[in-house]
Amino acid sequence: MFKVLKQVQDYAKESWQAAKYIGQGLSVTFDHMSRRPVTVQYPYEKLVPSERYRGRIHYEFDKCIACEVCVRVCPINLPVVDWEFDKKAKKKKLNHYSIDFGVCIFCGNCVEYCPTNCLSMTEEYELASYERHELNYDNVALGRLPYKVTQDPMVTPLKEFAYLPKGEVEPHGLAKGAQRAGKRPEEILEEIEAAKPKEEAKPEG
Ligand code: SF4
Ligand code: SF4
């Protein structure tokens, strides 16, 4: 008799636990049912990359002094700087420059250390190609102005989650000038600039 009661008690306990776990799982499901979809209908819609996104590198041939700093700071010595010494002008003459984006890890070191700022990271991320050698960009390809999601008339740009207004979870149908949650880098810089005279005005000592 005692054994039967124990079995009934265990059965009731396990049933209660099973019901609890099913309830927990369904609560997650129902929670998602009440949320709005955040699907991006690529390629008709595209997310605007974040401000410091490290996409395809842009290069300005006329500003390059062939110093090869970019090669030395690159973890894989990737940029190819083809130059020769011009004896008449007594300075380097740049012939070609290339970066292979099939190998580049987009770390941004070359951009960071270039003394003439002729390299810059862009927000271009669509580099897919059928032939890997096509990813080896020469100075002409590197000099092409970057593609911008916001300037393509065929594409609806969507704000990334980080830039949505506070409390907003869906990037569709936002008003054009809708405020984003965080401050823009230029706003932060303005604040720093505004704070500067106060610091300078502080008495010495
Ligand atoms: S660091 Fe800049 S200036 Fe020097 S070779 Fe590289 S791209 Fe040219
Ligand atoms: S982004 Fe990094 S890996 Fe790519 S070329 Fe520049 S330094 Fe090299």
From TrEMBL:
Name the gene behind this protein. Answer: ndhI
SUPFAM superfamilies on file: 4Fe-4S ferredoxins (SSF54862)
Q: How does it sit in the membrane?
A: Peripheral membrane protein
Among the GO biological process terms of this entry, one is:
photosynthesis, light reaction
Its annotated function is as follows: NDH-1 shuttles electrons from an unknown electron donor, via FMN and iron-sulfur (Fe-S) centers, to quinones in the respiratory and/or the photosynthetic chain. The immediate electron acceptor for the enzyme in this species is believed to be plastoquinone. Couples the redox reaction to proton translocation, and thus conserves the redox energy in a proton gradient.
Which cofactors are required for activity?
[4Fe-4S] cluster
> Does the UniProt entry include the keyword NAD?
yes
Chain sites annotated for binding [4Fe-4S] cluster 1:
C64, C67, C70, C114
Give the 4Fe-4S ferredoxin-type domain ranges: 55-84, 95-124
- Designated name of the protein: NAD(P)H-quinone oxidoreductase subunit I
Q: Which EC class, in a word? A: translocase
Q: Which reaction does it catalyse?
A: a plastoquinone + NADPH + (n+1) H(+)(in) = a plastoquinol + NADP(+) + n H(+)(out); a plastoquinone + NADH + (n+1) H(+)(in) = a plastoquinol + NAD(+) + n H(+)(out)
Q: What keywords appear on the UniProt entry?
A: 4Fe-4S, Iron, Iron-sulfur, Membrane, Metal-binding, NAD, NADP, Plastoquinone, Quinone, Repeat, Thylakoid, Translocase
Q: Keyword Iron-sulfur, does the record have it?
A: yes
Gene Ontology, cellular component aspect: plasma membrane-derived thylakoid membrane
What binding details are noted for the cofactor? Answer: Binds 2 [4Fe-4S] clusters per subunit.
Region annotated Disordered, chain positions? 172-205
The domain of life for this entry's organism is Bacteria
Location in the cell reads: Cellular thylakoid membrane
Q: Where is the composition biased (Basic and acidic residues)?
A: 183-205
Assembly and oligomerization? NDH-1 is composed of at least 11 different subunits.
**EC number(s) stated in the UniProt entry for this protein:** 7.1.1.-
Q: What Gene Ontology molecular function terms does this protein carry?
A: 4 iron, 4 sulfur cluster binding; iron ion binding; NADH dehydrogenase (ubiquinone) activity; oxidoreductase activity, acting on NAD(P)H, quinone or similar compound as acceptor; quinone binding
Q: Where does [4Fe-4S] cluster 2 bind?
A: C74, C104, C107, C110
- One Pfam family of this protein, by short name? Fer4_7
